[in-house]
Design a protein that fits this description.
With 356 residues, the protein is of the alpha/beta class. It is 38% helix and 15% strand. It is built from twelve helices and twelve strands. The strands form three sheets. It has a seven-stranded mixed β-sheet, with helices on both faces. A three-stranded antiparallel β-sheet has the order 9-12-11, covered by helices on one side. It starts with 30 loop residues before the first strand and ends with a helix. 43% of the residues are buried.
């Protein structure tokens, strides 16, 4: 190409955006413990409804996602006007940034936390303010409150936190919310809420009810097992929910996803059984890791976290050779999804051998 040929001008904010790294796709002989997916198939009745819905996917889906929003509103006891949907909770999070933040604005979140936060913040043109986790892998809410300035527009609170699994208690989170100015949106990201068992961990939906500056993110990708269909939602007071609908990609939540999500909400008994099974496996894995001598934070999610530092990539490589793919964060640690019992056993064997 000649030196004088011009190319389209792109936004400077896009330079240097960190790439989102999905869990590595394993081969047929390897278990995937890298993406926090549910190892179970779709909930009872979901697949049948989805197959039927495929007969009409030559038509556009309901752009307003009316049936699903109504089901969510009924399930959580909120006005339907307070519900907004998107392509997974990360899609909704990006809509929230579009609605609140741009160049010159700041977005506060813990680090390390969900790796999409810095990506979608930079895409919006806003500035990330990363607040380090405490030594025990928890949010430092006092430091996060102190990081708020007159430029802060949004705060992400990932509870339980991805990738560490640590969760914030009710009193601590309430004190934090009391310190945040009312014109700053606090987004409580509860992608793993269904796996929480500690009664001290609050349900974000209860906190949102009397706080107009609180929005709650949920997803059908994890506990509900619909990761491949990309559907999530927010519960927020009407001005925020309206902004989410205004920034949504038209027809973003496809018709198959809408049907699957509605039927999944109606299969709650089976959902709870599956979540409890995974929680029991989580307990077993944590106990065994501690017996091996690992220092592992309590997890309220469907994964565990090993702080491995410079040994992270070596550990991930050994795990893959043994037959499981984990999610490494180079120089920091590895997140390991709770999967099938056989897969968990392979991981535990690798962890034991790695300490020897």
């Amino acid at each position: 190409m000649a030196d004088d040929v011009q190319t389209p001008k792109l936004r400077e904010a896009l330079r240097g955006i960190p790439a989102y790294r999905p869990g590595k796709i394993p081969d047929a002989s390897t278990f995937k413990l890298s993406s926090n997916e549910n190892p179970y198939p779709p909930l009872p009745g979901v697949l049948e409804k989805v197959q039927k819905s495929c007969e009409t996917f030559n038509r556009y889906p309901d752009m307003g996602v009316a049936r699903l929003c109504s089901e969510i509103a009924s399930r959580f006891g909120v006005p339907v006007e307070h519900v907004a949907t998107g392509t997974g909770s990360v899609g909704v999070a990006q809509q929230l940034l579009q609605a609140t933040s741009g160049p010159g604005d700041e977005v506060v979140y813990a680090w390390r936390s969900f790796e999409a936060y810095p990506i979608i913040t930079q895409i919006s043109g806003a500035t990330s303010v990363k607040v380090p986790l405490t030594p025990d892998e928890r949010h430092d809410l006092d430091a996060m409150a102190e990081a708020v300035t007159d430029r802060t527009r949004l705060i992400f609170v990932c509870n339980p936190n991805n990738p560490t699994g640590a969760a914030i208690g009710r009193e601590e989170l309430t004190r934090f919310l009391d310190r945040v100015p009312g014109d700053v949106l606090v987004v409580i990201d509860e992608a793993y809420r269904e796996f929480v068992r500690d009664p001290r961990i609050p349900d974000g939906v209860e906190l949102y009810r009397d706080r107009p500056n609180v929005a709650v993110l949920r997803t059908f990708s994890k506990a509900y097992g619909l990761a491949g269909l990309r559907v999530g939602f927010a519960i927020a007071h009407e001005p925020v929910a309206e902004a989410l609908r205004a920034t949504a990609v038209p027809f973003g939540v496809n018709s198959v996803a809408q049907v699957a999500a509605v039927e999944s909400l109606r299969a709650e008994e089976a959902l709870l059984e599956r979540c409890e099974s995974l929680v029991q496996e989580r307990t077993r894995v944590l106990e065994e890791l501690r017996k091996q001598g690992w220092t592992v934070p309590d997890s309220e999610a469907n994964f565990v976290w090993l702080r491995l530092g410079e040994d992270t990539m070596d550990f991930a490589a050994k795990a893959e050779v043994a037959g499981v793919v984990v999610r490494p964060f180079a120089g920091e640690g590895a997140r390991i999804t709770i999967g099938e019992v056989e897969a968990n056993d392979i991981f535990l064997r690798v962890a034991s051998e790695f300490r020897d």
